[in-house]
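User: Second chain of the day. Same drill as before.
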Amino acid sequence: MVLKTEMSDGVVRLRPLLKHDAKELTQAVQKSIPELMPWMSWCHQGYSEKDATQWLNTLPSGWDKGTDFSFAITDIADGQIVGGCGLSFVNSLFKFGNVGYWVRSDRTGEGIASRSALLVALFAFEKVGLVRAEIVVAVDNQASTRVAEKVGATREGVLRNRLVVRGNVFDAAMYSLTPGDFDLEVKL
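Assistant: Same format as last time:
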Protein backbone atom coordinates (compact mmCIF):
# COMPACT_ATOMS: atom_id res chain seq x y z
CA MET A 1 0.00 0.00 0.00
CA VAL A 2 1.25 3.45 -0.92
CA LEU A 3 0.63 6.14 1.65
CA LYS A 4 -1.74 8.82 0.48
CA THR A 5 0.36 11.79 -0.37
CA GLU A 6 0.26 15.36 -1.61
CA MET A 7 2.60 16.81 -4.21
CA SER A 8 3.20 20.32 -5.47
CA ASP A 9 5.40 22.15 -7.93
CA GLY A 10 4.58 25.55 -6.46
CA VAL A 11 1.75 26.22 -8.94
CA VAL A 12 -0.49 23.18 -8.60
CA ARG A 13 -1.04 20.80 -5.72
CA LEU A 14 -2.13 17.21 -6.18
CA ARG A 15 -3.92 15.62 -3.27
CA PRO A 16 -6.02 12.51 -2.91
CA LEU A 17 -9.65 13.08 -3.77
CA LEU A 18 -11.95 12.85 -0.76
CA LYS A 19 -15.67 12.25 -0.31
CA HIS A 20 -16.27 15.88 0.60
CA ASP A 21 -14.95 16.94 -2.84
CA ALA A 22 -18.12 15.77 -4.62
CA LYS A 23 -19.74 19.18 -5.02
CA GLU A 24 -16.64 21.02 -6.23
CA LEU A 25 -15.62 18.13 -8.48
CA THR A 26 -19.11 18.10 -10.01
CA GLN A 27 -18.91 21.82 -10.74
CA ALA A 28 -15.54 21.39 -12.47
CA VAL A 29 -16.87 18.53 -14.62
CA GLN A 30 -20.06 20.40 -15.49
CA LYS A 31 -18.02 23.35 -16.78
CA SER A 32 -16.14 20.94 -19.07
CA ILE A 33 -18.71 18.46 -20.41
CA PRO A 34 -18.39 19.39 -24.13
CA GLU A 35 -14.60 18.97 -24.02
CA LEU A 36 -14.51 15.85 -21.81
CA MET A 37 -17.40 13.82 -23.19
CA PRO A 38 -15.76 12.70 -26.44
CA TRP A 39 -12.76 11.24 -24.59
CA MET A 40 -13.83 10.30 -21.05
CA SER A 41 -16.29 7.43 -20.71
CA TRP A 42 -17.34 8.58 -17.23
CA CYS A 43 -18.38 12.05 -18.41
CA HIS A 44 -21.93 12.52 -19.68
CA GLN A 45 -24.61 15.17 -20.06
CA GLY A 46 -26.24 15.67 -16.70
CA TYR A 47 -23.15 14.62 -14.72
CA SER A 48 -24.29 15.10 -11.14
CA GLU A 49 -23.06 15.23 -7.59
CA LYS A 50 -24.48 11.73 -7.19
CA ASP A 51 -22.17 10.52 -10.01
CA ALA A 52 -19.19 12.15 -8.34
CA THR A 53 -20.08 10.74 -4.91
CA GLN A 54 -20.45 7.21 -6.28
CA TRP A 55 -17.05 7.42 -7.93
CA LEU A 56 -15.36 9.01 -4.91
CA ASN A 57 -16.65 6.15 -2.76
CA THR A 58 -14.68 3.67 -4.90
CA LEU A 59 -11.32 5.43 -4.59
CA PRO A 60 -10.05 4.14 -1.23
CA SER A 61 -10.06 0.59 -2.58
CA GLY A 62 -7.65 1.51 -5.39
CA TRP A 63 -5.27 3.17 -2.96
CA ASP A 64 -5.43 0.20 -0.61
CA LYS A 65 -4.78 -2.30 -3.41
CA GLY A 66 -2.08 -0.15 -5.03
CA THR A 67 -3.84 -0.24 -8.40
CA ASP A 68 -5.43 3.21 -8.78
CA PHE A 69 -4.32 6.53 -7.34
CA SER A 70 -6.67 9.43 -8.08
CA PHE A 71 -5.79 13.03 -7.26
CA ALA A 72 -7.56 16.36 -7.26
CA ILE A 73 -5.56 18.98 -9.12
CA THR A 74 -5.84 22.13 -7.05
CA ASP A 75 -4.67 25.67 -7.63
CA ILE A 76 -2.05 26.31 -4.97
CA ALA A 77 -3.14 29.95 -4.69
CA ASP A 78 -6.74 29.32 -3.66
CA GLY A 79 -7.14 25.53 -3.25
CA GLN A 80 -9.82 25.35 -5.96
CA ILE A 81 -10.18 22.01 -7.76
CA VAL A 82 -9.17 22.66 -11.36
CA GLY A 83 -9.17 19.07 -12.60
CA GLY A 84 -8.19 15.53 -11.85
CA CYS A 85 -5.32 13.23 -12.59
CA GLY A 86 -4.08 9.88 -11.53
CA LEU A 87 -2.15 6.72 -11.97
CA SER A 88 -4.39 3.80 -12.91
CA PHE A 89 -4.23 0.24 -14.18
CA VAL A 90 -1.05 -0.31 -12.16
CA ASN A 91 0.57 -3.60 -13.06
CA SER A 92 2.74 -4.53 -10.09
CA LEU A 93 4.32 -7.54 -11.85
CA PHE A 94 5.65 -5.58 -14.82
CA LYS A 95 5.84 -2.28 -12.93
CA PHE A 96 3.91 0.06 -15.21
CA GLY A 97 0.74 2.13 -15.02
CA ASN A 98 -1.33 4.66 -16.92
CA VAL A 99 -1.11 8.42 -16.31
CA GLY A 100 -4.37 10.27 -16.96
CA TYR A 101 -5.41 13.91 -16.59
CA TRP A 102 -8.14 16.43 -17.29
CA VAL A 103 -8.48 20.13 -16.54
CA ARG A 104 -11.68 22.14 -16.31
CA SER A 105 -12.31 24.02 -19.53
CA ASP A 106 -12.07 27.51 -18.06
CA ARG A 107 -8.52 26.73 -16.83
CA THR A 108 -6.99 25.09 -19.90
CA GLY A 109 -3.97 26.64 -21.57
CA GLU A 110 -2.25 27.36 -18.25
CA GLY A 111 0.04 24.30 -18.20
CA ILE A 112 -1.95 22.67 -15.40
CA ALA A 113 -2.30 19.28 -17.12
CA SER A 114 1.40 19.16 -17.99
CA ARG A 115 2.46 20.04 -14.46
CA SER A 116 0.08 17.44 -13.05
CA ALA A 117 1.15 14.70 -15.46
CA LEU A 118 4.78 15.22 -14.49
CA LEU A 119 3.96 15.08 -10.77
CA VAL A 120 1.96 11.87 -11.24
CA ALA A 121 4.80 10.29 -13.23
CA LEU A 122 7.26 11.15 -10.45
CA PHE A 123 4.81 9.67 -7.93
CA ALA A 124 4.70 6.50 -10.06
CA PHE A 125 8.46 6.14 -10.02
CA GLU A 126 9.35 7.40 -6.54
CA LYS A 127 6.40 6.21 -4.43
CA VAL A 128 4.87 3.28 -6.32
CA GLY A 129 8.16 1.90 -7.68
CA LEU A 130 7.16 1.68 -11.33
CA VAL A 131 9.63 1.64 -14.21
CA ARG A 132 7.23 2.89 -16.87
CA ALA A 133 4.33 5.35 -17.00
CA GLU A 134 2.09 5.19 -20.05
CA ILE A 135 -0.11 7.92 -21.50
CA VAL A 136 -2.68 6.45 -23.88
CA VAL A 137 -4.45 9.16 -25.89
CA ALA A 138 -7.06 8.93 -28.64
CA VAL A 139 -5.31 10.03 -31.82
CA ASP A 140 -7.85 12.83 -32.36
CA ASN A 141 -7.62 14.16 -28.79
CA GLN A 142 -5.35 17.05 -29.62
CA ALA A 143 -5.35 18.63 -26.17
CA SER A 144 -4.17 15.47 -24.40
CA THR A 145 -1.69 14.75 -27.18
CA ARG A 146 -0.15 18.21 -26.66
CA VAL A 147 0.21 17.49 -22.94
CA ALA A 148 1.99 14.17 -23.55
CA GLU A 149 4.37 15.87 -25.96
CA LYS A 150 4.91 18.88 -23.70
CA VAL A 151 6.03 16.69 -20.78
CA GLY A 152 8.56 14.97 -23.03
CA ALA A 153 6.86 11.58 -23.21
CA THR A 154 8.11 9.36 -26.02
CA ARG A 155 5.54 8.55 -28.68
CA GLU A 156 5.91 4.84 -29.32
CA GLY A 157 3.23 4.30 -31.93
CA VAL A 158 -0.47 4.02 -32.62
CA LEU A 159 -2.53 1.23 -31.09
CA ARG A 160 -5.46 0.30 -33.29
CA ASN A 161 -8.92 0.15 -31.66
CA ARG A 162 -7.37 0.81 -28.24
CA LEU A 163 -10.03 3.03 -26.65
CA VAL A 164 -13.81 2.63 -26.47
CA VAL A 165 -15.91 5.57 -25.24
CA ARG A 166 -19.68 5.10 -25.24
CA GLY A 167 -19.50 2.64 -28.11
CA ASN A 168 -17.09 4.75 -30.18
CA VAL A 169 -13.84 2.96 -30.99
CA PHE A 170 -10.66 5.02 -31.27
CA ASP A 171 -7.09 4.38 -32.28
CA ALA A 172 -4.74 5.68 -29.60
CA ALA A 173 -1.22 7.00 -29.49
CA MET A 174 0.97 5.32 -26.89
CA TYR A 175 3.37 7.61 -25.03
CA SER A 176 5.71 6.63 -22.24
CA LEU A 177 7.84 8.13 -19.52
CA THR A 178 10.54 6.25 -17.63
CA PRO A 179 12.66 7.11 -14.60
CA GLY A 180 15.56 7.87 -16.97
CA ASP A 181 13.53 10.75 -18.40
CA PHE A 182 13.87 12.35 -14.95
CA ASP A 183 17.42 11.17 -14.26
CA LEU A 184 16.06 8.89 -11.55
CA GLU A 185 17.74 5.60 -10.74
CA VAL A 186 15.54 2.51 -10.89
CA LYS A 187 15.61 0.59 -7.61
CA LEU A 188 14.07 -2.86 -7.92
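The beta strands are 7-8, 12-16, 69-75, 81-91, 96-103, 132-138, 154-165, 168-177.

User: Great, on to the next one.
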